[in-house]
Amino acid sequence: MSNPWNGKAVLEVFWWNCWNTNYPHDWYTFVAKLAPRIAAMGFDGIWTPPPCKDRPSDNTSPASNNMGYTPFDYYDLGLKNQIRSVYTRFGDQDSFLRLVAVAHANGLEVYPDIVLDHCASGDLDPSSPFESTASEAYTLMQPKGFAGAGRWPRNWLDFHANPQHWNGTGDWVASNGGPDFCYQGRCTDSGAGDQNCAARANARAWLTWFVKQTGVDGFRFDDVKGFPPEVVEDLLYNAMGSGLEYFCVGEYVTGAASDVDAWAGATLNRSGTFDYPLRFALADMVAQNGYSDVGSLPSQQQLNRFKTVPFVNNHDNYDGQVGSWMEADNPRTQLAYAVAITVDGSPQFFYADLFRNVAPWVNGTTADAIPSRPWVENLVWCHQKLSFKSGDYFVRYQQSQQLLILERGARAIVAINNDGSAWHDAWISTAFAPGTQLHDYSGSRPDDIWTNQDAWVQIAVPPLSYSIWGPAGVTGGFSPASRRTVQQFEMDDDLGDSDAASLGYGGKVIPGTYRSGGGIWPAAGTRVNLSVYADAPQQVDLQVVLAGATPVLRQSGSCTANVPLAASFMVAAEGRHIVQAKLSGAAAAAARIYIKVDYQGPATSTLF
Questions:
Q1: Nearest CA to 119 among 157, 60, 184, 73?
Q2: Which of 155, 424, 491, 556 has the most CB atoms lying inside 10 A of its own CB?
Q3: Are residues 401 and 377 in the same domain?
């Protein structure tokens, strides 16, 4: 049974400038190969890099050189031949969609990084009054489409400063990392509409398209201090519906708990935040080398914990950009992780902490070869097997600068000792029943202990160590339930790319010639279900071909906006299946259609 939506164990599966020579420009495939290991460790989901086509700041390098944090074309997930590359740094659209399907087949959710603020990837906009200032002038973004112009073009009016924010001051006008998007208006579900904000309407339409196209499960929003929180609320309401039970977190870098609490509240709790106040406190504990007050740590966590995400490290501090790095092999980093997994929220682990991201594995490993840190695996195991987040949170002991004891009600007792030379102990009350046998699953203590007749217990922790006490007898590994993936290909002239070097997806369907909507990678021996919709009634010929050559399905019929042309087939051989369509009538006008595909990806494969 998976963890609750606000208590998942999440792994960030990249670092800044991540690279693997065995999978050049295809980090997605390396992560897909890692997926079975990640699932077997007990993780619930993975945080993936930004998926949209980026442009390097020198405007001469290919898009595949950049990390994706200054998007040029939101609708290019690595399928168009633009910015001197078809793929992004992490792969093409096919490999990203395959990663989602493989992750789902392993019982993992997928949370891509979403960048809605800074976009330093444009061309010089001759209409901009700031033409002489390069940082403000490079705001013209004209993405490609199948028949020419692409969807969501932008110019200087979409950025600060503009006629609505001419003086460059006030809320949401600061520029961090390049020209800064201007979002105005209020959420659609508040009844206030867009207030003529093109950027808001375009962002809303894009995220809704993105969720349907990819089948992802949640999000990490980058640099949310740069635009109003109502934008995130608006987009999530439209893309994910009115419910709240999905993983979503925003990067709001601050040491003030009141700031992150207010931001999460302003999104109506559709998104949580990384718990930066707690993270800064944990970093201080590690840096002060035994001279910090660990008893004060619980008071540092944010109060709005509906979707909070405690963490220790991520790609930003690993690269030295945001906050200090907590070295994974520092014993106090282990203490920091023990606290982060125990407090309320969905703890986020980092690739370079879990895996030994050093030579000889850092840039050329295989998924099977790179070693992991046993203590990180053990913390994930404890969090999951002892069902931490199904028990209430208690601070049981904090009257010492060196000893902190926390409990997840009747699930686990977690204690850290920050003293490098002496044991520390304390008697605590617990939510366990009297006479409960408790085992230390961290391995720091070999002997079991029992709660007394009043359900109290004495917790003793070795120097510079932690312990995790839970009911004795818990064993076993993880085999999360596999699930299917649903992805939808919208075929229109302003999507995709007809360039011979591109993946060749997109364009309205026409008579006489099949056009390709997209590619999927189903597992052999499984059934693929397809549903074709159209804005207006159409007669459509549907075809699926394996590896671009062998037809495995051909079916014709009518479809409307509400009644689809339905088809299905059994997969004889694993591989990339291209979904294609054309109009049946020789004189029919070009039409936009939507092809929804429901399929089972392979959990493992030797074919990619």
A1: 73
A2: 491
A3: no
